[in-house]
Design goal:
30% of the residues lie in helices and 17% in strands. With 244 residues, the protein is an alpha/beta fold.
Length: 244
């Protein structure tokens, strides 16, 4: 595992974007696995800035996203489809037909999971997978205690996740109860993995995930077993890790 210590969120974003940029420059037709959430936004902003300067070309890139809420229209501003278009897809020269996200409006979970897993397999796998880190160690929507061998699957969101998402919706009744997500097995099949972590509130779980025991109780800990993981975290997130 490679660990890059960043001064702050902006520095973390720049370092992470540099790794993604290097991947695309060295392999223009890269398959990128992308993540949503607040942490990667700065990374996407940096990539857009470099694209506008002519430093990076997305025209041959293919993307596959980690997850999507089940039952949420793409036009909903809380859907991950909306998020990705707002923060990256509509701002660079990526071909829209080469951007893939689970179809949250396919209510047949078995069908949608099989379709999305086959799509990833048919692409030949992911060259570089970007991940964030949840406060309980979740990656994607893979919560603690879930089976580590799963491919793309449908998950029931925990009450904590539903409550945390409540602020983004008009009422608690509007918050999605399920989501489609790549499983741990899907994530671990990526050739390279890039994890971005920021903030003192992630310090404990970062230490547990990358320097603790590998266990399904901390899903991100499985990343210790991957041959090519890069962790980019700011000083605050790394504050509990001695010697870094």
């Amino acid at each position: 595992m490679r660990i890059y210590k960043a001064k702050d969120y902006k520095d973390m974003s720049r370092k992470a974007a540099n790794i993604i940029s290097a991947q695309v420059i060295s392999k223009p037709d890269s398959i990128l696995g992308l993540a949503t959430g607040s942490t990667p936004i700065g990374t996407y902003d940096q990539l857009v800035e470099w694209y506008n300067k002519g430093d990076i070309d997305f025209s041959e890139v293919t993307t596959v996203n980690l997850d999507e809420y089940k039952g949420l229209e793409r036009t909903n501003d809380q859907s991950y489809y909306y998020f990705m278009h707002k923060h990256l897809f509509d701002r660079v020269n990526i071909r829209q037909e080469r951007t893939f996200i689970p179809n949250g409006m396919n209510m047949n979970a078995e069908e949608e999971c099989a379709r999305y897993q086959k799509l990833i397999d048919d692409l030949g796998g992911i060259d570089l997978q970007l991940l964030g880190l949840g406060h309980n160690g979740h990656i994607g929507f893979n919560e603690p205690g879930e089976a580590l061998e799963k491919d793309v699957h449908c998950v029931d969101l925990t009450e904590n996740t539903i409550e945390a998402n409540r602020r983004f919706f008009d009422s608690i009744d509007d918050v999605p109860r399920q989501a489609y997500t790549m499983g741990i097995k899907s994530i671990m099949h990526a050739k390279k993995i890039l994890v971005v972590v920021s903030g003192e509130d992630k310090a404990d779980i970062l230490k547990e995930s990358f320097f603790g025991k590998v266990t399904s109780k901390v899903p991100a800990s499985i990343l210790q077993l991957h041959p090519y993981v890069t962790l980019v975290a700011d000083e605050a997130a790394l504050s509990k890790c001695e010697g870094l």
